[in-house]
Specification:
- Helices cover 63% and strands 3% of the residues.
- The protein has helices at residues 2-13, 16-33, 45-54, 69-84, 93-101, 108-119, 138-151, 154-177, 188-194, 201-238, 246-254, 256-273, 279-291, 327-351; strands at residues 64-66, 133-135, 294-295, 301-302.
- A two-stranded antiparallel ribbon has the order 1-2.
- Helix 8 (154-177) packs parallel to helix 12.
- The protein is elongated, with a radius of gyration of 26 Å.
- It starts with a helix and ends with a helix.
Length: 355
């Protein structure tokens, strides 16, 4: 078994795509996380204004903080007032102001019904929830950052965002690289020769799965170590509390079960069809399914998790980040699915063994 693991690792280390893909994963994750690596307390209003010009994400690093329900409603009304004017609905500024003024004391549900009836402006009640961030003052932003850093270390928030984007890029990297795991073995001559070797089905299957995981773990460890060091260094420099274990915990919980599931899916498909290629389009559709959002009970569209998803997304603002409601159960289910697929792979290999 261990000889198979070593062979697969050597094969990957000789493959230029292994290194090229790893570099692209690193760059992709870095571009998404770069704003969060510059979060700090703002010294003055000028610096806060410059941050808003530099980062247009509408998050805390650009001076945005969560808005209260009343503030959110007020921001939404301002946007509606702009929409009612030309060139969208053709109202004059005065007419739009009068419509919005009549909505100031309505509930969100009443406002949506009023707009549809009086202006043929159709929105849902959930529309108002999209304006959940506001531009904060210097005092508000710094106070908000301080309060959040008292709740959890900076590295906790960074780790969740890292698990989000690393998982996204790593899934597609694994889809490409793990196709090579069974490629050579499924060729007719090699396939028949392997079945004449005195190696048990469990040894072969576990060797291949562990070999594929070892290659993915090597990339995961290197990239995670780099980002972990970057987050620790910046957190200390900004005066935030830090914890070196946060990023590793997030990766182990939210990324490794997903990679294991992809390895096992490739194994099952390869042994069932004697080719890993059918797994590629299936995994692409699986990734799209995993990344899809949905609407909650209030009609708000967002990412709430999908059963057996091979991605765990954290789309919230940086300091309000939280795992999807079903993340823990989903990751445990993925691990169980991987064990089941491993057993199926062993049975498929055993059924075709001729020695």
């Amino acid at each position: 078994m261990w000889s198979i693991v070593k062979r697969e690792c050597r094969n990957y280390w000789k493959n230029p795509l292994f290194y090229l893909g790893a570099v692209l994963v690193f760059l992709g994750v870095y571009m998404q996380l770069k704003p969060y690596l510059q979060l700090h307390y703002f010294a003055d209003e000028k610096e806060l204004e410059q941050a808003g010009e530099q980062f247009e994400m509408g998050d805390v690093e650009s001076g945005y903080i969560p808005a209260s329900r009343e503030e959110r409603y007020g921001i939404a009304l301002k946007q509606i007032e702009q929409d009612l004017q030309e060139p969208f609905f053709g109202m004059s500024r005065k007419e739009a102001e009068e419509v919005v003024a009549s909505m100031e004391h309505m509930s969100e549900k009443e406002a949506a019904a009023y707009l549809e009836q009086e202006c043929s402006y159709i929105i849902s009640e959930a529309y108002f929830s999209y304006f959940d961030m506001k531009k904060g003052t210097l005092e508000e932003v710094n106070r908000y950052i301080k309060e959040k850093m008292e709740e959890a270390p900076y590295t906790y928030y960074f780790a969740e965002k890292y698990a989000d984007f690393f998982g996204l890029f790593m899934v597609f990297y694994a889809m490409i690289l793990l196709a090579f795991l069974f490629w050579e073995d499924m060729k007719k001559d090699t396939y028949e020769l392997l079945h004449t070797k005195p190696i048990s089905p469990a040894q072969y299957v576990l060797g291949k799965i562990c070999g594929g995981m070892a290659a993915m773990l090597a990339v995961t460890a290197v990239i995670t170590a780099i980002f972990g060091q970057m987050s620790m260094q910046w957190g200390r420099q900004a005066g935030f509390p830090v914890n070196a274990l946060d990023i590793w915990k997030a990766v182990c919980i939210y990324n490794l079960p997903n990679l294991l599931a992809i390895v096992c899916i490739y194994g099952g498909v390869s042994l069932a069809f004697k080719s890993p290629l059918p797994a590629v389009p299936a995994l692409i559709l699986y990734a799209v399914y995993s990344n899809m959002g949905s609407r909650n009970e209030e009609g708000v569209y967002g990412y709430y998790g999908r059963p057996l998803a091979i991605m765990v997304r954290f789309p919230g603002s940086f300091l309000e980040i939280a795992p999807p409601p079903m993340a823990a159960v989903n990751q445990a289910a993925l691990f169980l699915l991987s064990l089941i697929l491993t057993g199926i792979c062993i049975l498929l290999w055993k059924r075709r063994k001729v020695f």
